[in-house]
Amino acid sequence: MRNSLKINDIVIRGAKEHNLKNIDVNIPRGKFIVITGLSGSGKSSLAFDTIYAEGRRRYVESLSAYARQFLGNLEKPNVDYIEGLSPAISIDQRGISKNPRSTVGTTTEIYDYLRILFARIGTPHCIKCNKEVKKQSVQQIVDSIKSLPINTKFMILSPIVRHRKGEHKDTLNIARKSGFIRARINGEIKELSEKIELEKNKWHTIEIIVDRLQINNEIDNDRLTNSIETSLKLSEGLIKIALSNNKEIQYSDTFSCPDCNISIEEIEPRNFSFNSPKGACNTCSGIGHSLKVDPKLIIPNNELSIEQGAIAPWFRSGGYANIYIGIFNSISEQFKFSLQTPIKNLSDENLKIILYGSKSKPITFN
Q1: Which residues of 257-291 are buried (b: 16+ CB within 10 A; e: fewer)?
Q2: 3-state class of 131 per DSSP?
């Protein structure tokens, strides 16, 4: 019987725990499984009192006698045969903590291992173009270039300006004074000694030509290494290899996307922690929810005008405080609406200004 069963199933035969009536079932491993049915049909008896109970019992039996004494004796569930079990975790439906930072992952300590796993073997991708983001050491870049076919000619380029508007006169002058002779500007090679004029309102890419080399058995390893280090220093960690067949290879000694000009810091476990400013969501600060204004609670009756007390949090039985009256008067004068107009008749734009402010547009208060 054992040889005919799939090893990727949890196999249960003769489950009789509580109200189970000699149940036989195969449950796929490595899947999300939902056990559903009428109340009293035996869902919990199968999931918790049979599968979980036996998985936990077998796990505890694998521990030392010293460890088992703290866990107590675990009874074997009323079942004829179970195969394919792993150490099990049972999660109650009731929350054991009201702290939003307490999750299944933190309670079981799985979260700590996942953070280390993602930080050490995870592959980062650009948040804009979704391409894989890599970094290489100088020696890795040298080895990669030297692995190119023999007689391959190439240029080492340092992209000091990547798709940015401007005339970039200062950048070009610094390159000239540093002793560089040529640059590839918007795909065209130019002598830096020439007068170069770039349109201020157009996008430009400037790549300094650091060196020209050819792959052969006599390639100067020190020269190649120095040129790569110079290029990386000029462009803050980015280098481009332009091959003679018009193909290009890009390298970086930091986690950065050369296409989108986006860089990320060295990846650490704290980058995956919602309890750390490095990993917490900017919107909710890592707690899973954020505070928002409910307009219906701020303005419970849109039949009223502002003068009649439509803004409930600011209105008291005696009317608005003087400071609020001054604010309302200044806003209404500047955006041309009446405080006597019922809220429902105000434009959406004016209502947004009342509730959320004018954003970047300044308001003068009297």
Answers
A1: bbebeeebeebebebbbbeeeeebeeeeebeeeee
A2: coil
| Token couple for 196 | 């170069």
Q: Which SS3 state, helix, strand or coil, does residue 43 take?
A: helix
For the chain, the C-alpha Rg in angstroms (whole number) is 34
Question: Is there a contact between 11 and 82 (Cβ–Cβ < 8 Å)?
Answer: yes
Map tokens 């799939």 to a residue.
6
Residue 154's DSSP bridge partners are 213, 243
* Axis-axis angle for helices 348-356, 322-335 (nearest 10): 140
Instruction: Tell me if 249 sits within 8 A of 240, measured CB to CB.
Output: yes
Burial class of residue 46, CB neighbours in 10 A (0-12, 13-18, 19+): buried
Which own/partner pairs from 101-109 qualify as long-range (CB within 8 Å, at least 24 positions apart)? 101/274, 101/275, 101/286, 101/287
The model's pLDDT over 335-365, given as tens digits with 9 standing for 90+, comes to: 888 888 999 999 988 888 888 888 777 877 7
For Cα atoms 361, 365, 366, give the angle at the middle one, nearest 5 degrees. 150
Tokens of 77: 């569930």
Q: Which long-range contacts (CB under 8 A, 24 or more apart) does 296-302 make?
A: 298/355, 299/343, 302/342, 302/343, 302/344
CA distance 279 to 270: 6
pLDDT recorded at residue 166: 92
- The H-or-E segment that residue 133 falls in is none
Question: d(Cα 274, Cα 272) in Å, to the nearest integer?
Answer: 7
Rounded to the nearest 5 degrees, what angle is found at the Cα of 301, between the Cα atoms of 300 and 303?
160
**pLDDT, tens digit (0-9, with 9 covering 90-100), for 1-19:** 444 444 788 999 999 999 8
